[in-house]
């Protein structure tokens, strides 16, 4: 494994070192990261471990690499990522998975506002975000494809682990929510239903990986009750565009 000390380096210097190391070894460890942005941008065919807290847009435009972050991440993690995995052993900030069109983000803890905004499926790619804890407001805003899975671990006895205005403008994809009670979202633009066997089968592999990455009890998580939020295609925001 190649090692990079990020102390005192700017993000351009870090990414140049990553590319140089990747020629010799696909496994790279970065230590003493402290807020540098854009680490791992457009990276492919590399396993990158980040020790410390990276700045905004870690893994932006990711194209097949695996990034493990051993602490928290800041905003716009996985911005417009195309393929690969980002695994966060902490929480992630606002706009996690912004406009992602492929790959998977696993977050052990919570995420901030607007996670999954503008997510979209692209050809055979289905982007997915798995969130272990709770989310801020505007989750899945304008979501056009892919899956968002909220497990609510640690929040089972409290409120539903969602902020306000979930799925505003959603017109594709699915949001899965592990909870005993359905979310109270009053709108005719969304359908909220209890997950059936087919729905659960769709997310099983993601939850298996989540459980493996963060040492969680897969059987307990998968046997819980889930709800699914999908757009109501019979009323796709027509009143916003026509008076008829």
Automatic annotation (TrEMBL):
Q: Where are the transmembrane segments?
A: none
InterPro entries attached to this UniProt entry: Glu_synth_asu_C, Glu_synth_asu_C_sf, Glu_synth_lsu_3
What domain of life? Bacteria
> Which GO molecular function annotations are given, in alphabetical order?
oxidoreductase activity
Among the Pfam families in the record, one is: GXGXG
Domain (Glutamate synthase alpha subunit C-terminal) spans 29-183
PANTHER family attached here?
Answer: TUNGSTEN FORMYLMETHANOFURAN DEHYDROGENASE, SUBUNIT C (FWDC), TUNGSTEN-CONTAINING FORMYLMETHANOFURAN DEHYDROGENASE 2 SUBUNIT C
- What name does the UniProt record give this protein? Glutamate synthase
């Amino acid at each position: 494994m190649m090692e990079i000390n990020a102390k005192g380096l700017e993000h351009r210097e870090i990414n140049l070192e990553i590319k140089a190391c990747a020629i010799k070894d696909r496994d790279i460890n970065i230590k003493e990261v402290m807020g540098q942005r854009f680490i791992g941008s457009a990276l492919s065919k590399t396993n990158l471990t980040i020790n410390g807290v990276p700045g905004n847009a870690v893994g932006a435009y990711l194209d097949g690499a695996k990034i493990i972050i051993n602490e928290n991440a800041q905003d716009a993690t996985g911005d417009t990522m195309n393929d690969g995995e980002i695994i966060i052993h902490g929480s992630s900030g606002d706009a996690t998975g912004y406009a992602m069109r492929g790959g998977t983000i696993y977050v052990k803890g919570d995420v901030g506002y607007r996670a999954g905004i503008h997510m979209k499926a692209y050809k055979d790619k289905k982007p997915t975000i798995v969130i272990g804890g709770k989310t801020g407001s505007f989750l899945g805003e304008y979501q056009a494809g892919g899956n968002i899975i909220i497990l609510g671990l640690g929040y089972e006895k409290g409120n539903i682990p969602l902020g306000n205005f979930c799925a505003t403008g959603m017109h594709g994809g699915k949001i899965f929510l592990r909870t005993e009670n359905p979310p109270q979202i009053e709108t005719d633009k969304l359908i909220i239903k209890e997950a059936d066997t087919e729905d659960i089968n769709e997310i099983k592999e993601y939850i298996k990986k989540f459980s493996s990455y963060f040492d969680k009890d897969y059987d307990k998580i998968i046997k819980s009750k889930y709800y699914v939020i999908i757009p109501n295609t019979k009323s796709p925001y027509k009143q916003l565009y026509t008076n008829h």
